[in-house]
Write a structure and sequence with these properties.
about 20% strand, 6 helices, 2 domains, 5 strands, alpha+beta
């Protein structure tokens, strides 16, 4: 999946030092204005699951490195480099062919805000129908639509969250 990366090597020497094994430098994939946009991009960038390898802070910036959890010994990493209002996603390494049983879980973050908005006024089945109708001509987005079970779980979570706020406001208002 490293072939999806743009063939641009970073010119910042700090980023090249980030390659612990010295095998290759990071390739810039995309830059964003907010960390939330960068995380959504990382979640929808590839079908592989990533876990936090480590986080560190440098002078003026924060670096979080994610390793591939979908392949057994995998050298592929994604790096989120945040400095001020600039958030850059970078990649290094290549995926191995030996797959683990680890799959992505949950609702894809690129459709999560839309799902939550629809669930605030619809049930899980109504939300699913609305999403299918909205993306019927867009196959790439259609495959990101969550299942009915995922929508039911999310609806329950949102209802519990709303109930918690209700009790908090009732307590504060006395």
């Amino acid at each position: 999946m490293a072939s999806d990366a743009i063939d641009v090597t970073t010119s910042d020497s700090d980023h090249e030092e980030g390659a612990e094994d010295g095998s290759s430098s990071y390739q810039v994939l995309e830059s964003f204005r907010t960390a939330a946009e960068a995380i959504i991009y990382m979640d929808s960038y590839s079908p592989y699951r990533f876990s936090v390898l480590h986080g560190s802070s440098r002078v003026g910036g924060l670096v979080t490195t994610y390793s591939c959890a979908s392949n057994d010994p995998c050298d592929y990493t994604l790096c989120l480099y945040s400095q001020g209002d600039q958030h850059t996603v970078e990649a290094r390494g290549a995926h191995t062919l030996k797959s683990t049983a680890t799959e992505k879980k949950g609702i894809n973050r690129s459709v999560l805000a839309e799902v939550e908005s629809l669930l605030s006024g619809n049930g899980p089945k109504g939300c699913l129908i609305a999403l299918q109708q909205r993306y019927q001509n867009n196959q790439a987005r259609l495959c990101l639509i969550p299942t009915v079970a995922q929508l039911k779980n999310r609806k329950q979570y949102l209802n519990k969250q709303a109930a918690g706020w209700y009790y908090l406001f009732a307590y504060l208002n006395g």
